[in-house]
Amino acid sequence: MSRQAKDDFLRHYTVSDPRTHPKGYTEYKVTAQFISKKDPEDVKEVVVWKRYSDFRKLHGDLAYTHRNLFRRLEEFPAFPRAQVFGRFEASVIEERRKGAEDLLRFTVHIPALNNSPQLKEFFRGGEVTRPSEMSRDLHILPPPLIPTPPPDDPR
């Protein structure tokens, strides 16, 4: 009996906010959103900070898995090469950011990639939030207390 993984979530990935780490490398904010197909209000978000070498390793692992799926009709996305000089230039940082985002977005429609242990490990330890719960909590708060002058105050 064949067992097919059923995916109950839409996935959306963004790579943004590059910053220089004090140890001398660039980190990128990686956000994964998982939106329930049954209840679009049910959203889970995972945020991790990763560096170029983390993406390069993930690219290699996922490229290997993709090659073994025999999906020859779709070309696995290329990834920017490593370089020693100029790696802190804005154009290089942006090229790496875009390459990382393209890699993650490529996995969305391929269950063997988006459910891979390597991708799960990539996001392990990330900050998990549920934006829908946070917005619901905001409505629970009472209105702010603003002092108003008494009606007979001449001011």
Provide structural commentary.
The chain has helices at 52-67, 90-106, 111-114, 117-123, 131-140; strands spanning 9-20, 26-36, 43-51, 127-129. It is an alpha+beta fold and 155 residues long. The chain has a single domain (9-132), classed as PX Domain, CATH 3.30.1520. A four-stranded antiparallel beta sheet has the order 1-2-3-4. Keywords: Methylation, Phosphoprotein, Protein transport, Transport.
Total discrete domains:
1
Mean pLDDT: 82
Alpha-beta classification: alpha+beta
User: What is the assigned CATH homologous superfamily?
Assistant: Phox-like domain
Neighbour order of strands in the largest sheet: 1-2-3-4
The name CATH uses for the topology is PX Domain
Could you give the order of the helices and strands? EEEHHHHEH
Instruction: Label the CATH architecture.
Output: 2-Layer Sandwich
Radius of gyration from CA coordinates: 22 Å
Q: What distance separates the N and C termini?
A: 81 Å
Largest pleated sheet: 4 strands, antiparallel
Domain PX: 1-130
Region (Disordered): 133-155
Subunit structure: Homodimer. Interacts with SNX1, SNX2 and SNX4.
Function: May be involved in several stages of intracellular trafficking. Overexpression of SNX15 disrupts the normal trafficking of proteins from the plasma membrane to recycling endosomes or the TGN.
Topology of this protein?
Layout: E1 9-20, E2 26-36, E3 43-51, H1 52-67, H2 90-106, H3 111-114, H4 117-123, E4 127-129, H5 131-140
Antiparallel strand pairs: 1-2, 2-3, 3-4
